[in-house]
Amino acid sequence: MKGLVTILALALGACSAGDDVSGGARAQCAAGGELLDCPDAARTAEGACWRLVDCGAIAVNSIDGNGNHRFDWGRCVDSFDSVTADRRRLVINCVAASSCDQLRMDGSPGDPDTRQNYCLALGRD
Questions:
Q1: Chain centroid to CA 19
Q2: Which of 9, 64, 78, 98 could crosslink 102 through cysteines, CB 3.0-4.6 Å?
Q3: pLDDT per residue as tens digits for the range 29-62
């Protein structure tokens, strides 16, 4: 019985989070300056909006108390699709190349203040 407990303890220790785990988009590629080994997001409106979600800048689905959608994934895609092609490319490329720290805004992710995001500002008139 004592041997079984030891084996279980060793197995649990081997499964614990160590230096070899990756934290996804919010980990190494999310903070600080430019990291050359971090992949860019897909260069589409959907890809850029998913990057904003992955970075914790916007929610997938966010509705206010009146039943209106806040700036969430769906409104993000709609906003990218509503600007001219040259502005859309500019905003998408900006989001794709930015760190998560640069993409977050006050109120993120549920009610982000989009005026604070310099990439989204590139799409405004």
A1: 22
A2: 98
A3: 554 444 455 565 678 999 999 999 999 999 999 8
